[in-house]
Design goal:
It is a single chain. The protein has 110 residues and is mainly beta. It contains 1 helix and 8 strands. The protein has a 4-stranded antiparallel beta sheet. The protein is flat and about 55 Å long. 5% of the residues are buried.
Length: 110
């Protein structure tokens, strides 16, 4: 969840708002919820749309420096500080076939 510019259906213009992404494991879907400033202020749900369906699995890994072991490691859990990189592994179901996608993003500010 983070603040960003969103298109407001009420104001018919771009305004500050909130965007939230969620992964529904049981449905195998990723959805995005957009709320403009008035939605956030009034506690309204805003607009939710499904971005991706037929997800078999979605996993995140975090690249960190372990000071105790004095080595760099990939972990499947985010514990403390900002990681040095994040890897996402996505598997999509397509009829009888499964397609796997992997993306690693470095975080230079960490």
């Amino acid at each position: 969840e983070f603040a960003t510019l969103v298109n407001s259906r009420k104001l018919q213009n771009s305004t500050v708002g909130r965007v939230r992404y969620r992964y529904d494991y049981s449905k195998g879907e990723i959805a995005r919820q957009r709320m403009d400033y008035s939605d956030v202020y009034n506690g309204d749900d805003g607009i939710e749309e499904t971005l991706l369906r037929n997800i078999k699995s979605l996993k995140f890994y975090y690249y960190i420096y372990d000071a105790e072991k004095q080595q760099y490691l990939w972990r499947d859990e985010w514990r403390e500080k900002l990681p040095l990189a994040i890897r996402a592994e996505l598997e999509l179901k397509n009829n009888d076939q499964t397609n796997k996608f992997t993306k690693t993003v470095s975080i230079p500010a960490s």
